[in-house]
Automatic annotation (TrEMBL):
<feature type="transmembrane region" description="Helical">
    <location>
        <begin position="168"/>
        <end position="188"/>
    </location>
</feature>
<keyword id="KW-0812">Transmembrane</keyword>
<keyword id="KW-1133">Transmembrane helix</keyword>
<feature type="domain" description="ABC transmembrane type-1">
    <location>
        <begin position="107"/>
        <end position="297"/>
    </location>
</feature>
<dbReference type="Pfam" id="PF00528">
    <property type="entry name" value="BPD_transp_1"/>
</dbReference>
<feature type="transmembrane region" description="Helical">
    <location>
        <begin position="231"/>
        <end position="256"/>
    </location>
</feature>
<protein>
    <submittedName>
        <fullName>ABC-type dipeptide/oligopeptide/nickel transport system permease subunit</fullName>
    </submittedName>
</protein>
<comment type="similarity">
    <text>Belongs to the binding-protein-dependent transport system permease family.</text>
</comment>
<feature type="transmembrane region" description="Helical">
    <location>
        <begin position="138"/>
        <end position="162"/>
    </location>
</feature>
<dbReference type="GO" id="GO:0071916">
    <property type="term" value="F:dipeptide transmembrane transporter activity"/>
</dbReference>
<feature type="transmembrane region" description="Helical">
    <location>
        <begin position="276"/>
        <end position="300"/>
    </location>
</feature>
<feature type="compositionally biased region" description="Low complexity">
    <location>
        <begin position="17"/>
        <end position="27"/>
    </location>
</feature>
<feature type="transmembrane region" description="Helical">
    <location>
        <begin position="44"/>
        <end position="66"/>
    </location>
</feature>
<dbReference type="GO" id="GO:0005886">
    <property type="term" value="C:plasma membrane"/>
</dbReference>
<keyword id="KW-0472">Membrane</keyword>
<dbReference type="InterPro" id="IPR035906">
    <property type="entry name" value="MetI-like_sf"/>
</dbReference>
<feature type="transmembrane region" description="Helical">
    <location>
        <begin position="109"/>
        <end position="131"/>
    </location>
</feature>
Length: 326
């Protein structure tokens, strides 16, 4: 993540004239406005948004139109058909109903972890980087301690300590958020240390602006693309980690998630019985949602890294040249 967002770009070369570049930055921010914070529309972004919106709508709306996912029928393990869109489990439970409620549970965990981890990383990274001194040293120490401790073993230990009957989706979300903010905080601290030495930030200090206003108005807008990218990554990591914990039996035992679906399918020997309709849908849902978020994250990278902004245009130009040469 090199470089700042387009909010601080000017037509001058900052390396040749730093004063001119810093003086023109507020004007660039006022000219570009919200458009500079939005990713450039590309087929990758459209595909990613389509996947994420479709899965999110399915997880939000579908549970209202399906039956009880825990209702037991005497029909046993049956393939799709006969009124069951995705068949049934070995106890006769509707797989489609389970998939709808499990998708909602995984989305809840992903969004909560993304929000909490982003807030923690912003607090420790931005506040510590701007204030400096003992506060920055203390915040950096906390970040370094969390980085040194292996994430997955720590999550497994914490999940194992919590009793199974108290291990709901929100408990897993808090555990994942507490163990997953440190790396993002280090990135935000480095960006904040660079921004706080800019001329327009110094001018705001000289003008008597309060520190909280300088952070919110002068520094935070330049970090929004980085925060957005970190939020998307945190959601992806949370859903994948929760699925792994649930598959090991350490997930949200009293909540329906895609990971718990895979756990019960594995315990029910779905693979050995060739019951693909039991384990393929939750696995495919995780893969498609992660793919959609990754494509969105690639589009946000074009804002964070200026070197990536002209890549689509250069590819199109090379393609036209090859077509003309042929």
């Amino acid at each position: 993540m090199t470089g700042l967002s387009p909010l601080t770009e000017t037509s001058e070369d900052p390396a040749r004239d730093p004063a001119a570049g810093a003086a023109a930055a507020p004007a660039a921010r006022s000219r570009s406005g919200l458009r500079s914070l939005l990713p450039r529309w590309t087929p990758l972004l459209g595909t990613g948004l389509g996947l994420v919106v479709a899965i999110a709508l399915f997880g939000i709306v579908a549970p209202f139109f399906v039956g009880d996912p825990n209702a037991v029928d005497n029909r046993g393990l049956t393939p799709p058909g006969d009124g069951f869109l995705l068949g049934t489990t070995q106890t006769g439970q509707d797989v489609f109903a389970q998939l709808a409620h499990a998708t909602r549970g995984s989305l809840q965990i992903g969004l909560l972890v993304g929000a909490l981890a982003t807030l923690l990383s912003a607090f420790f990274g931005i506040i510590g980087g701007y204030i400096g001194g003992a506060v920055d040293e203390a915040f950096s120490l906390a970040s370094n301690v969390m980085l040194v401790i292996p994430d997955l073993p720590l999550v497994i230990v914490i999940s194992a300590i919590v009793p199974a009957d108290q291990r709901g989706w929100w408990t897993i979300a808090v555990v994942l958020a507490v163990t997953g903010w440190a790396a993002s905080a280090r990135v935000l601290r480095a960006q904040t240390l660079s921004l706080r030495n800019r001329d327009y930030v110094a001018a705001a200090r000289v003008a008597g602006e309060k520190p909280w206003r300088i952070v919110c108005v002068e520094i935070l807008p330049n970090l929004l693309p980085v925060l957005a990218s970190q939020f998307v990554y945190a959601v992806i990591a949370a859903i994948l980690t929760e699925a792994g914990l649930s598959f090991l039996g350490l997930g949200a035992s009293n909540s329906a998630t895609l990971g718990t679906m895979l756990f019960y399918a594995q315990n029910g020997f779905a693979l050995q019985q060739s019951a693909w309709w039991w384990f393929v849908p939750p696995g495919l849902m995780i893969a498609l949602f992660g793919c959609g978020l990754s494509l969105i994250n690639f589009s946000i990278d074009e804002i964070i890294n200026p070197k990536l902004r002209g890549v689509p245009k250069r590819r199109a130009a090379r393609s036209r040249q090859r077509s003309a040469a042929a």
